[in-house]
Amino acid sequence: MTTAVQLKTRELKPGFGAEILDVDLARAEPDTLAGVVDTFHRHGAILLRGQEMSPKQLVDFVALFGEPEDHTQKQFTLPGHPKVFVLSNREADGKPIGAHNDGVGWHTDYSYKAQPVMCTMLYAVEVPDEGSDTLLADGCAAWNALSPERQKELDGLRLHHSYQHFMATREFGRQELSDELKRDNPDVEHPLIRTHPADGRKALWPSTGTVTEVVGMENPKGLELVDELVEFMTSEPFVFRHKWQVGDILMWDNRCTLHTGTLYDDTKYFRTMHRLWAKGDAPY
Ligand SMILES: [Fe+2]
To answer: Does 36 have pLDDT greater than 60?
Structure first.
């Protein structure tokens, strides 16, 4: 059996996330990798800089966290690597090689699925000199900052999520779903307050884009509540802003965070990232 070694880390933000130092993932021993996985489950997010990883190495690495998940928009996966999704503004033969401006707006990945992805990994292949930061919001810190009375009011509420609604209304890449995508992505309900399976810690877990209502609450009251909670959770005290360098691997735990991309000047810069997901459980 592999035992996790204690790694050298520093917090991304007080009380949230860990940058793991002095680890070369492509050459790391199993006990070091077990330490990386362990650090991830405890801190909500991890960062490793200066990595050189082939698509296959990325898939093998994410598989340490859980079974690699497929991607909904299959036209943007890396040829020959269906688990590796490309985010890019580059084109090849007149066609985009990846999704552009994907993930702008606070959300949690795959929130429209019965079993949303547990973790998201981004690997920076090329990055702009400015813009395109990724922001992570700490749902546990936001939950802990609420008064016991407020926590009691919110605990037990459920949100209705819809992929169809999200794709019909989002700012970038709006699309009418094919019958196949509609069939594969029926609406789901998830708790507003999510419990982390590793240690039972609770997190505020709203989202934007896919949420159509708070179950049992009239709109606009329900959506106003969701907006208010997203605004609270994504306010400065709970947010880590990541500025990308080539070779960065940033992974976050979708069970206790929200995230958003930010825009960049795509007339001036190219940005290419590889995104991978590990499967998750039904939220409770
Ligand atoms: Fe995302």
So the answer is: yes
